[in-house]
């Protein structure tokens, strides 16, 4: 007999398998329709089992945020991985050991990073990050910085893999039309840099873009070769507030127990180290959204999760001690990263317990 939800020790991270499978299939189909390969960012779930589902649905490789994730997934058999984070000089030797085993893409946006790779004297595969409007990392697309880095990569005997960007600025827009415009701005900027490099006879194979809010709205990705959304596997309240998904698409939730109650409020065993402290769409007024109390669905009149300390979560209403409460997260990537395991559930049946590979 498979265990039931109410048998689980709390706090427990729950993955709704029906929704996950739907989300994975829908994005694979979307990438296919847009004519780009899909390289999902697995930092959202850090689960080998989910990465395998994404590959089975057509993903050509995966994206990771840490070398630790890259190593774990490589050990599990994934052999085409992009570490989509600016190269960390103190980890270049570790990256080389992995690049000797699998196809590992690395990302740079500075001559210093290229030099740290070149010093290893290994034919690394190197992507150049371009800032297409998010203004976090990446070279300025209106300058020749990408050309300069590409020439340095090639001169050092490494392989220039292509251009890569991340449209995190799509998170600032909450209509489909605006998010589509961000996706188009990203596409236009990165493909124009690629065209400029090709005009200088610099072979530019890959053109990699993406974020979940841009990818769920993009209408045309001409000139782009691959997309790297991550959050879409689970979605969350932030994506729902942007219109990138509906509440019924959110595959991740936290099961928590009321452990103390007064006439005014109740306390559950899901604090900041279960939910994360991402304030989400309500800028911190609600640290998640209750969707079930004692196994029964609740609507918008449900108590709110109004405060989090390390292990305590505070609800704005009294509830009997022992009551099980299920909460949707503001930001699923950070919530998932609070846990070492998740439970794969279908309805109220627990079908599996998967490792969440946290680590550095
Ligand atoms: N690529 C890079 C470099 C990222 O940093 C991220 C997320 O932070 C992604 C892709 C995936 O974006 P999202 O989680 O919005 O799908």
Short note summarizing the structure:
The chain has 360 residues and is α/β, with parallel strands linked by helices. It is 29% helix and 24% strand.
How would you describe what is shown here?
- The chain is an alpha/beta fold and 360 residues long.
- 29% of the residues lie in helices and 24% in strands.
- The protein has 11 helices and 18 strands.
- The strands form 2 sheets. Strands 1, 10, 11, 12, 13, 14, 15, 16, 17 and 18 form a 10-stranded mixed beta sheet that branches. The chain has an 8-stranded parallel beta sheet with strand order 2-9-8-7-6-5-4-3.
- Helix 5 packs parallel to helix 6.
- Pyridoxal-5'-phosphate (PLP) binds at residues 41, 44, 63, 84, 166, 210-212, 228-231.
List keywords for this structure.
single chain, 360 residues, alpha/beta, eight-stranded parallel beta sheet, 11 helices, binds pyridoxal-5'-phosphate
Q: What's the tally of helices?
A: 11
Main sheet specs:
10 strands, mixed
End-to-end Cα distance, whole Å, is 37 Å
Number of strand segments: 18
* Outline type: elongated
Structural Rg: 21 Å
Which structural category do the helix and sheet elements fall into?
A: alpha/beta
Secondary structure layout plus pairing:
Blueprint: E1 12-16, H1 17-34, E2 37-38, H2 48-56, E3 62-64, H3 67-75, E4 80-86, H4 92-99, E5 103-108, H5 111-118, E6 125-129, H6 145-155, E7 159-164, H7 176-199, E8 206-209, H8 212-215, E9 226-227, H9 237-242, E10 252-261, E11 266-268, H10 272-275, E12 289-293, E13 296-297, E14 305-308, E15 313-315, E16 324-328, H11 332-336, E17 341-346, E18 349-355
Parallel strand pairs: 1-17, 2-9, 3-4, 4-5, 5-6, 6-7, 7-8, 8-9
Antiparallel strand pairs: 1-10, 10-11, 10-16, 11-15, 12-13, 12-16, 14-15, 17-18
Bound molecules: pyridoxal-5'-phosphate.
């Amino acid at each position: 007999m498979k265990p039931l939800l109410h048998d689980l020790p709390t706090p427990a991270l729950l993955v709704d398998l029906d929704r996950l499978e739907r989300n994975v299939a829908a994005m694979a189909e979307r990438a296919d329709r847009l004519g780009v390969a899909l390289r999902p960012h697995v930092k959202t779930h850090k689960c080998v089992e989910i990465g395998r589902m994404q590959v089975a649905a057509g993903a050509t490789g995966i994206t990771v945020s840490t070398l630790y994730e890259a190593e774990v997934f490589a050990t599990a058999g994934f052999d085409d991985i992009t570490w989509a984070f600016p190269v960390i000089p103190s980890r270049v030797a570790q990256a080389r050991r992995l690049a000797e085993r699998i196809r590992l893409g690395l990302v740079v946006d500075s001559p210093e990073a290229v030099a740290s790779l070149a010093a290893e004297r290994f034919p690394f595969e190197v992507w150049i990050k371009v800032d297409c409007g998010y203004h976090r990392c990446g070279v300025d697309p209106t300058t020749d910085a990408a050309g300069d880095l590409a020439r340095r990569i090639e001169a050092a005997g490494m392989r220039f893999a292509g251009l890569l960007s991340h449209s995190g600025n799509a998170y600032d827009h909450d209509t489909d039309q605006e998010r589509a415009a961000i996706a188009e701005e990203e596409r236009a900027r990165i493909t124009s840099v690629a065209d400029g490099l090709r005009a200088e006879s610099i072979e530019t194979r890959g053109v990699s873009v993406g974020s979940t809010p841009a990818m769920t709205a993009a209408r045309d990705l001409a000139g782009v070769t691959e997309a790297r959304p991550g959050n879409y596997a689970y979605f969350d309240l932030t994506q729902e507030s942007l219109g990138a998904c509906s509440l019924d698409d959110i595959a991740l939730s936290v099961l928590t127990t009321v452990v103390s109650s007064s006439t005014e409020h109740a306390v559950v065993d899901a604090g900041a180290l279960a939910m994360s402290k991402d304030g989400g769409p309500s800028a911190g007024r609600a640290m998640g959204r209750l969707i079930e109390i004692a196994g029964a669905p609740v609507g918008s009149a449900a108590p709110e999760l109004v405060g989090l300390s390390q292990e305590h979560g505070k609800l704005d209403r009294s509830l009997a001690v022992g009551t099980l409460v299920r909460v949707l997260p503001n930001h699923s990537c950070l919530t998932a990263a609070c846990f070492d395991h998740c439970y794969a559930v279908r309805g109220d049946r627990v079908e599996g317990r998967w490792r969440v590979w946290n680590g550095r």
